């Protein structure tokens, strides 16, 4: 596919007034807790969204455009090592960062596919989460630095991540992991990668049994996302089957305009090509011809998120096909956000508080690897 040009990109960037575009619209205020509103006001309101600039501009100074840009690397782990993993189509190498806990092993292993719309992110963006899971659950975590668009467009990210899964399975002994205790997971676009790879694992020969597919605010159906936001008609129930996408289109921290920005880079702007790609189940997992026999799934959704309803619909499809599915709903897309204290120096209490920001007692990885009690399915409330 051709790389999107700057001219093509600029059709999508003028979507909100700079400076005022990040103010929380009134319709969301009653549903947000005070802590989140305060954090957004202090850290996010005055920053421009990534979708308001070109990818080249974003890459020059990513922390300027995203208030969730990580400022805390996470706790120390027993061992960290980078490996160069061969990939194909096109041939090359990607980095897999392996976090190993203390102990004799062999350990269960979880592969993480970071979020960022197949365009942003890398080994630093979810490092704190990887480190914390490694320590808190005594699991080897492999963070996969798959290749990004626009240089590497669909479906390269999928097959880079699949190569990483096969590499981990093949090299289990040298990695000191159990080849029969593999789980995979990802955030947003990484959640879509996870969903697709669960099918790959089922369909390869011999099948690769996964203990868990963890999908955090996953994209599962982006056919409703318009090519050019300023010239597009507002989403309606006729053009989009997901109420959350219609209601949350102007969400400051995750607007529909950003989804369009991601897709324009990942699958291009040619309408015929986009239609073909979005009709492929590897880009739209809800279209998969068979949902049967997939790994146990845990899906985390956010109440205020464009992709909430498509994620829940995918969970429904998995459950109807007889798969084990658990679901959890959070208020906002806050799952992997960790901010450093503004003070330059922190005392021990600050560090302890930060290190326990995420409660790992209910994370699905240890339960999937028989290291803790199973999660119970949650009944979903209908949302408008």
TrEMBL record:
One example GO MF annotation: hydrolase activity
Q: Show the ranges annotated as biased composition (Acidic residues).
A: 341-350
From start to end residue, where is composition biased (Polar residues)?
A: 354-368
State which residue ranges cross the membrane.
none
Q: Which segments constitute the Alpha/beta hydrolase fold-3 domain?
A: 111-328
Q: Which Pfam families match?
A: Abhydrolase_3
Disordered: annotated span: 341-384
Q: Which PANTHER family match?
A: ALPHA_BETA HYDROLASE FOLD-3 DOMAIN-CONTAINING PROTEIN, ARYLACETAMIDE DEACETYLASE
- Protein name in UniProt: Alpha/beta hydrolase fold-3 domain-containing protein
Tell me what organism the protein belongs to.
Aspergillus oryzae (Yellow koji mold)
